[in-house]
Amino acid sequence: QSHASVRWHVIDWKSNRLPSYAPDALWQAMAEHDYLLQANLYLVAVHRWLRLRLGAGYRPFEHLGCAAYAFIRGIDPLIPGAGWVVVQPDLDLIAALDACFAPMEGAAHA
Description:
Elements lengths: L7 E7 L8 H10 L2 H20 L5 H4 E8 L12 E4 L3 H18 L2
Parallel strand pairs: 1-2
Antiparallel strand pairs: 2-3
Helix pairs in contact: 2-4
């Protein structure tokens, strides 16, 4: 089965009670609560899983999607995108974070 047109994403549902759910306020909440770090760690986990599952056919630029944060109190069905923050993967950062886990894996098998 070909996975050429399949992209895997992460969605994290947040119930934060914020004074505002405007885009700037959501990005501020992302920074204050370390959700950007969390998003990148989620993307590293998906990256590692896809590499394991798809093997040599895995292409991060094609298969690895984004990390989307849904601030459920700010979602408004009448306003497209309201309450959502989408973190696009930085493939260089994902590769660097992935490499940070490699020494730990070797030590676990020693």
